[in-house]
Amino acid sequence: MRNVHFGKHAAFMALFAIATVIGTLPGDAKCSDRPAAQVDWSGCAKKGLVLSGAVLDRAGMVAADLSGTDLSQVSLKGADLTKANVSNVWFVKASLQLATFTGAFGTRLRFTDANLTGADLTKVELSRVDMVQADLTDANLSQSQLIRADFRKAKLIRAKLVSANLTRTTFSDATLTATDFTGAYLYLTRVEGTDLSQVKGLTQQQLDITCGNAKTVLPPGLSAPSSWPCPVP
Fold first, then answer.
1. How far is CA 192 from the centre of its chain?
2. Longest Cα pair distance anywhere in the chain, in angstroms?
3. Are strands 105-107 and 125-127 parallel, antiparallel or unpaired?
4. Which of 121, 65, 113, 67 is nearest to 91 (CA)?
5. Which residue in 39, 15, 14, 38 sits closest to 25, CA to CA?
6. How far apart are CA 30 and CA 141, in angstroms?
7. Dist. CA 154–CA 141, nearest whole Å
8. E strands within the chain?
9. What gap in Å lies between CA 101 and CA 6, rounded to an integer?
10. Sequential pLDDT tens for the chain (233 residues)
11. pTM confidence score
12. How far is the C-alpha of 122 from the C-alpha of 161, rounded, in Å?
């Protein structure tokens, strides 16, 4: 029995030595996997990389640290970025259809021209995020923190912004057909030149703390606040 125990111990030590030489233990090997569809980088540090143009469809990136990484024009269809750190990440022109960002957090990231159709962005905490011209058709942004986000010229057709914090967020010239603003906080949210006539859940109380102008089109039954237009920020 002693020899058997010794043999198992020796085998483990040999495996440990090999893992040390290649710089990773067996449990962390996935973090060194090359970018590919369905790669599992959950919990991995992938900071400051250039992965533009990569195909990472259905990748697992749960709680991954992606801060400072360039994911421009990447394909992340159906990928799971739940609770990922996405500070200063570039998702410019990325394909993110049906991707999950639930609980993801970060600041100064860019989704310019990205396709986020059907994406799940519930409970994200993203400040100063650039969503200019992004396609968020059927996306769910409920209970999200999107302070100072920029949605200029973005498509939010049937998107859900239920109970979202949209303080100082910009929706100028965005497409808001059937977009649900039920319970959203719209303090100094900018809707200059925006057609709000087909949004859902918007109340006069919400509208009264926004910033619009004469080109803002309102839903039936709501009227422009006396505070419009707001000072230029």
1. 24
2. 88
3. parallel
4. 113
5. 15
6. 30
7. 14
8. 105-107, 125-127
9. 48
10. 444 444 544 444 443 343 333 333 334 669 999 999 999 999 999 999 999 999 999 999 999 999 999 999 999 999 999 999 999 999 999 999 999 999 999 999 999 999 999 999 999 999 999 999 999 999 999 999 999 999 999 999 999 999 999 999 999 999 999 999 999 999 999 999 999 999 999 999 999 999 999 999 999 999 999 999 998 87
11. 0.86
12. 9
Tokens of 22: 């290649």
User: Among 180, 176, 134, 184, which residue's Cα sits nearest to residue 157?
Assistant: 176
d(CA 131, CA 122): 16
Spatial neighbors of 36 by CB under 8 A, at least 6 apart, are 55, 56
